Amino acid sequence: MITIHPTARISKLADIEDSTRGTRIEIGAHSMVDSFVKIKPVGGSGDLVIGEHVYLNSGCVLYTGQGIRIGNSVAIAANCTFAPVNHAYKDASRLIREQGFLPGKGGIVIEDDVWIGANCVLLDGTVLRRGCVVAAGTLVKGEFEAYTVYAGNPARAIGKRT
User: Fold this and answer.
1) What pTM was estimated for this model as a whole?
2) CA separation for the pair 7, 125 (Å, rounded)
């Protein structure tokens, strides 16, 4: 089920797939989904809920997996990938594609007033607390403190918003 607020803007070049398993996709008021954004319900039964005044820039890919919750006033730069899902792979006697998925780590939660730079990858279990900033190219996993700036691989705190 896809619910898009009447004031949200979705590019005609965005691709939002509807779920065959009942996963909800909600896009809040005044949010923008830019061209070449791909939203794909796969890898779990989690919902994708996007708040108000969220900007998803061109080229982002969001797999619903164990769920993604994006708060209000969040800016997401180009080419970010949200992957709240983990493939099973340990059984060498079976093809990886036949092993399904591992139990979830809680999906991805992004609180209000967060900025995610271009080309970031967000993994299952990520929590970005209110007001944090993630520099371009950062691999994002775990919990990030509020109003803190992160960069690098692995991500580390490099400053605070004051």
Assistant:
1) 0.93
2) 30
